[in-house]
Amino acid sequence: MRISQLQLREPFGAILERTLADFLSESFGRSFQVAWHQGTHTGNSESQTWRCNPYLNIIFRPGIHREPLLPAVYEFSRSTKPWRTPLNKLYVVLAAGRSTARFLATATVEIDPPVPNAEEMVIIGGNHHIRLLDYHQRCCTVITKHGFCVAFMKNEIAVRSAHPYLPTPRILEKSGDGGWYSEELILGTPINRLKDQRQADDAVQKIVLLLFRLYETTQKLERIQDYVGRIVSRIGQNIDRNLLLSTSQRDTMSAAVKRFACAANGLSSDIITVQAHGDFQPANILVGNGGSWLIDWEYTTQRQSGYDGLVYVLYSRRSSGLAQRISCAIDGTLQADALLAGWPGLEWHDYNKRHGRLALFLLEELDLKLMENDNSLFTSVDSGLKNLCQELVHILPLFNSCNI
């Protein structure tokens, strides 16, 4: 999630100040002060000034070397909408240019004392983490944001450490409390930004085979009623706890939970769950450094075996239009049906099981979105949850066969 979006739901500047100050103080063994200023700011002569472009999702030093800016250049120069690509390229050139970057930066960060080799570093915002890309050390440090749950990072480290064959950068170092880890620096392009679709398809196929290997070693047989019951219980608790939700949002989600749970419980008495990646989307599949990589494992946990496949083909991280895609999936007219047909445990050819699996998937998605928003620092409901609530209104009629 870009800094421009993070600022809409949380006091990003204050969170960044505390997160970076604590990490730098621990890393260098001395006290650091970090100050966020909206707009341009002239600091004292002893502080080190960084610029923030929230739309490119980067914080960087004036006079930064070209290489640290390449991830932003690769990711944002091309658009998923071809007509926007020329505009994106122009903006990125200006935003990363030595003489023009300051005009497009909307915030300033001051760090005191100065960070060594800062011209070879870039800071990237994230949903739960801050990433510090250090091209001098050739590593990326992932730091849990102050006030955010460290469980996501601990789960990620555990899974990646237990399954070293996974296509992820090698973990180099980790903190004792699970608050941060560093990994090899991978410079790659997300597959949805590639010009060559065949290259993107090849990357997906390679990574899917390794995901299936993970599924084989982590699969568990569970009663569907038990699995659904745990999800419903968590959703209910998070709805009650989140004071930012409107009455309309609460009512919509409560109605959705009842209907989806009814449809999901119509499956057979047993279900296979696996250690899913949790965020298997094109933006997290990179091509570069001589290989294909699957990054951002922060949402990994035990879910139904088809979860990752459904996230991918339904573009569920982009809620807009989800109702239409769910409708096509139920009817068996989804464009990517071929991929799901071979996905373990989905039994995609069976209409009734497909219907039940989709209902279960929607429960899992709502569970995840609510967990994302379970944070007392938030001042607004995340846009992803808002958009999902809007789509649920149109999805509910697709599961109206249950008596609730």
Task: Tell me what you see in this structure.
This protein has 404 residues and is α+β, with helices and mostly antiparallel strands. 43% of the residues lie in helices and 18% in strands. It is built from 14 helices and 15 strands. The strands form 3 sheets. Strands 1-4-2-3-5-6-7-9-8 form a 9-stranded antiparallel beta sheet, with helices on both faces. Strands 10-13-14 form a 3-stranded antiparallel beta sheet. A hairpin with a 4-residue loop joins strand 2 and strand 3. Helix 3 (70-77) runs antiparallel to helix 4, helix 8 packs parallel to helix 13 and helix 11 packs across helix 14 (383-395). The protein is globular, with a radius of gyration of 22 Å. The mean pLDDT is 91.
What is the secondary structure topology, with strand pairs?
Elements: H1 3-9, H2 12-28, E1 33-38, E2 48-53, E3 58-60, H3 70-77, H4 85-96, H5 101-104, E4 107-112, E5 121-124, E6 129-134, E7 139-144, H6 151-162, E8 171-174, E9 180-184, E10 189-190, H7 197-218, E11 220-223, H8 224-241, H9 247-264, E12 270-276, E13 285-288, E14 291-294, E15 301-304, H10 307-313, H11 322-331, H12 337-341, H13 351-372, H14 383-395
Antiparallel strand pairs: 1-4, 2-3, 2-4, 3-5, 5-6, 6-7, 7-9, 8-9, 10-13, 11-12, 12-15, 13-14
Helix pairs in contact: 3-4, 8-9, 8-13, 9-13, 9-14, 11-13, 11-14
Number of helices: 14
* First and last CA, distance: 36 Å
Low-confidence stretches: none
Provide the structure class: alpha+beta
Mean of pLDDT? 91
Strand residue percentage: 15-25%
Shape: globular
User: For the CA atoms, what is the radius of gyration?
Assistant: 22 Å
Number of strands: 15
**Overall helicity:** 40-55%
Quaternary structure of the protein: single chain
Largest sheet, if any?
Answer: 9 strands, antiparallel
Strand/helix succession = HHEEEHHHEEEEHEEEHEHHEEEEHHHHH
Strand order of the largest sheet: 1-4-2-3-5-6-7-9-8
